[in-house]
Amino acid sequence: MRFRQTRGLLEPTAILWMVVGWVGFALLPWYGIEDGFFGLSWLFDGYPFDSKFAPALVLVLKGEKIWLAPLGFLLAAPLLLWGRNKSDPFFGRVLIIIGAAGFGWLLFQGFAIGLHGWQFSWLNSLFGDLGDRQFGMGYGALLVSGAFLFLLTLGIAARGAVGGDVFVVSSIGFVVVVVSIFIFMPILMMLANAMQTDDGGYSLVAFLAKLFSSRLWSLACLAGGSRCGVAWNSLLLAVLVGLLTMFLGLVFALVVTRTGFRYGKLLRALTVLPIITPAFVIGLAIILLFGLSGTVTQSVAGVFGIQPTRWVYGLPGLLIAQVLAFTPIAFLVLIGVVEGVSPSMEEASQTLRASRWQTFWTVSLPLMRPGLANAFLLGFIESMADFGNPLVLSGNYDVLSTEIFFAIVGAQNDAALAAILALVLLGFTLGAFYAQRFWIGRRSYTTVTGKGDAGVHPRLPDGLTRALYVIAGLWTAFTVLVYAVIFYGSFVRLWGVDQSLTLQHYKKAFSVGWNEFGIHWSGSAWSSFWTTMEIALISAPLTAGIGLLTAYLLVRQNFRGKNAFEFATMLSFAIPGTVIGVSYIIAFNVPPIELTGTGIILVLSFIFRNMPVGVRAGVASMSQIDRSLDESSLTLGANSWQTFRRVILPLLRSAMLAALVYSFVRAMTAISAVIFLVSARYDLSTSYIVGRVENNEYGIAIAYSTVLIVVMLVVIGLMQLVVGSRNIGRRGIQKGDGGWSVRTNVSLPATPGGQTTIAGAG
Fold first, then answer.
1. Residue 279: its pLDDT value, please?
2. What's CA 353's distance to the chain center, in Å?
3. Is 199 helix (H, G, I), strand (E, B) or coil?
4. How far apart are CA 611 and CA 278, in angstroms?
5. How far is the C-alpha of 264 from the C-alpha of 468, rounded, in Å?
6. What are 610-623's pLDDT values in tens digits?
7. What percent of the residues of the chain are helix, what percent strand, and what percent coil, each to the nearest 5?
8. What is the pTM of this model?
9. Please, what is the end-to-end C-alpha distance for the chain in angstroms?
10. Which of 143-147, 187-191, 199-203, 292-296 has the highest mean pLDDT?
11. pLDDT band at 431 (very low <50, low <70, confident <90, very high)
12. DSSP 163-186
């Protein structure tokens, strides 16, 4: 939305945020997010006059929290602008002062009160002895902080920032604040321990000694030694995984979209299977196949007379497992990019007598460069941050993520070492990020414009098509084999000892009974299953929404600090889930933002851990959409919010589906972060499965994983139906008995109440 030069009593947007702020200040509890998924016990316990759950206004009037009074005065201050024109410089200045002062004072009073009273003596002199500690802020504080934030962005827009566009300025402000609180603050608090010594002091010498230790940077393996440093191990593995996942993701994207493959939907489902499986379950299946006593190993040894070895433990096994697990991410990113390449450009190349191979190599593939770069980056980062596969398969091949875990929970209990390892890992991922940007360069990859196009992708070269089928077929067969082992293992009574089939694992985990109250979910896994579903279904749309909004700001808007803004959005993805979990415990275990033990902290960790996938998928797809579509919409009178919702989002269906699917399945299968954040009340599927593995109950663990796979496939199918598919061409290509035919499908506006569709075949 943009400011219009009209005069009224008071800007409606300012009134809206005043009302929101006063609802939080006068009606909702200022403290008390501590139990229940949304911390709603205040609705039933002493609200609104109990001091623990009372609104800020009640606390001020009772004289208990007098330092909250300035917030009320600031919420009423926008009335000073009564009758002022939005173009008046005074209007913007006042809102900026109100928003900044209110937001700043809210944060200051929250952190100025410690567990034992005021942190500063002058506050004790000003307000008197506190008498109690700080409590975690509740929904009243949340609404008031939001009101001040958006009053601030309204004032900044009134001063002409980003063309005075309120939607864009507010979006930037919102993303900056939430990223700062839920990414930067926990990570900085975690990394603050990097220079800490065992006695609680700080030492630069100790920091440098750990940072440049031979354990990290040794190259002994190149000189005949047994091991290289952990840092080099992680870098080599991540580069190989990034390249292989990018290649396989492109292969599957081309097979599904460019070859006329009849079973594309089935291939999509098989490709997505690894991403919806807990990582350690894939590792366990690989061990059952290729371990020392594995089925494949023993079969090969028997046929060829070869002595079985433990080759699968280390780099080979890790590479297989991670490529299998992370290829779907590359596929989900690349399929939208491959679909988005303009058919008219490819047809123009063939009109100029280029061969199909030349067209693909010189036109199609270069236009896919943003997607290829993003696919490599995500594969690289995922490999760096992966925890489950190395935990099962690393052997003597140590990597950074597991070293961080053992530095925190192992016998050494060295939080400073864990922070230093995280810094090294962050350096590698940021290096990959900037290498990706350099490779893309400043070229234009726009292919989707407001102009019509032929809508027919030329056929790929026959040799390339055959190669794609072979590669995709072999990898699909391997994937099916791995999942056959997983499925079969869920029915085996005791793998390797008693191979008889049984349903006891499913009965123990998912039995259902009846009692006088109705259905009784008596199985031991039901509690963690329903909790996981609830949290995943809440976090997935929020993750996709914030990710695509951020991508829109990065691709479509220019503003100061844009590079730092993009860096911040990728930071959480560059840090292992282990570090995210520990940093969240450090940051949100004490007031004023006290979330430990609630479901909210799990939702937040999933949102900001998985948000970069939505960002990168959105950036890759939006880079292909011409800005003239936005400009046309704005010229016709739509504001930026309407343009984003009605023009941009419909063209981002592939990116939206990728973000939804990825964030949902990650919430269902994540382990590294949530292992620190789960509680007795909010136990998740992965922590339950890990518990069964630790108790050697592999059958139950695999049975639970099988159920999760089926459930997630169903939910992903429903997401596909809800989101739909993007249709940016005018014709589709079909193969019949008489050869290839073209079907045209053009929608033209006819009347205000409908549309005219022209269809034909030739």
1. 66
2. 44
3. coil
4. 19
5. 13
6. 887 778 778 877 87
7. 65, 5, 25
8. 0.74
9. 45
10. 143-147
11. confident
12. GGBHHHHHHHHHHHHHHIIIIIHH
Cα distance between residue 439 and residue 444, in whole Å: 13
Q: Where are the beta strands (DSSP E) in 199-245?
A: none
The pLDDT confidence band at residue 733, using thresholds 50, 70 and 90, is very low
> Would you list the DSSP string of 597-650?
TSHHHHHHHHHHHHHHHHHHHHHHHHTTB-HHHHHHHHHTT--HHHHIIIIIGG
**Quick one: which H or E segment has residue 653?**
helix 653-669
Residue written as token pair 């005069």:
7
Higher pLDDT, 751 or 164: 164
Helical residues (DSSP H) of 305-412, grouped into ranges: 315-340, 343-351, 356-359, 365-367, 369-385, 388-393, 400-409
CA distance 547 to 554: 11
CA–CA gap between residue 301 and residue 303 (Å, rounded) = 6
User: Rounded mean pLDDT of 453-478?
Assistant: 81
Q: Where is average pLDDT lowest: 72-81, 362-371, 498-507?
A: 362-371
Mean pLDDT of 149-159: 92
pLDDT in tens, 653-671: 777 777 788 788 888 888 7
Q: Residues 108, 96: contact at Cβ < 8 Å? A: no
Contacts of 574 (CB under 8 A, 6+ apart): 381, 384, 385, 425, 426, 429, 430, 433
Stated as kind and residue range, the H or E segment containing 465 is helix 462-489
Residue scoring higher pLDDT (728 or 373): 373
Q: How far is CA 659 from CA 269, 650, 720, in A?
A: 16, 14, 12
Burial 346-368 (b: 16+ CB within 10 A, else e): bbebeeeebebeebbeebbeebb
Q: Which helix (H) or strand (E) holds 474?
A: helix 462-489
β 739-751/518-520 pair status? unpaired
Q: What is the pLDDT of residues 571-605, one digit of tens each?
A: 666 666 777 877 887 788 777 888 877 888 889 98
Task: Give the residue from 236, 237, 258 showing the smallest Cα distance to 368.
Answer: 258
Question: Please, what sign has the CA dihedral across residues 198, 204, 207, 212?
Answer: negative
- From the number of C-beta atoms within 10 Å of its C-beta (0-12, 13-18, 19+), residue 404 rates as buried
C-alpha to C-alpha distance for 419 and 582, rounded to whole angstroms: 10
Q: Which two tokens stand for residue 260?
A: 């006329």
Average predicted confidence (pLDDT) for the chain: 79
DSSP count for the chain of H helices, then E strands: 34, 9
- Between CA 339 and CA 258 the distance in angstroms is 9
Residue 535 sits at the vertex; the CA angle it makes with 534 and 536, to the nearest 5 degrees, is 95
Q: How far, rounded to the nearest angstrom, does the alpha carbon of residue 516 sit from its chain's CA centroid? A: 43
Tokens standing for residue 428 = 């590698």
Among residues 94, 89, 79, 92, which one has the least CA distance to residue 18? 79
- Which residues have CB under 8 Å from 283's CB, separation 6+? 317, 321, 388, 389, 391, 392, 393
Residues 6+ apart with CB under 8 A from 246: 330, 334, 372, 375, 376, 379
The amino acid sitting at 264 is: G
Measured distance CA(679)–CA(684) in Å, rounded: 9
Do residues 617 and 223 touch, judged by C-beta distance below 8 A? no
Each residue's pLDDT tens digit, 640-650:
888 888 888 88
Residue in this structure with the two tokens 């566009």, named with its chain if needed = 165
- Cα separation values, 444 from 231, 588, 625, 627, Å: 35, 43, 11, 12
CA angle 686, 687, 691 (to 5 degrees): 115
Rg (CA), the chain: 28
Residue 412 burial (CB count, 10 A): 11
Q: Which two three-digit tokens encode residue 631?
A: 């400009």
Whole-number Å distance between alpha carbons of 158 and 87? 7
Strand partners, 243: none
At 594, list the tokens: 């006290």
Q: What is the dihedral of CA 237, 240, 246, 249, to 10 degrees?
A: -80
CB 209 within 8 A of CB 197: no
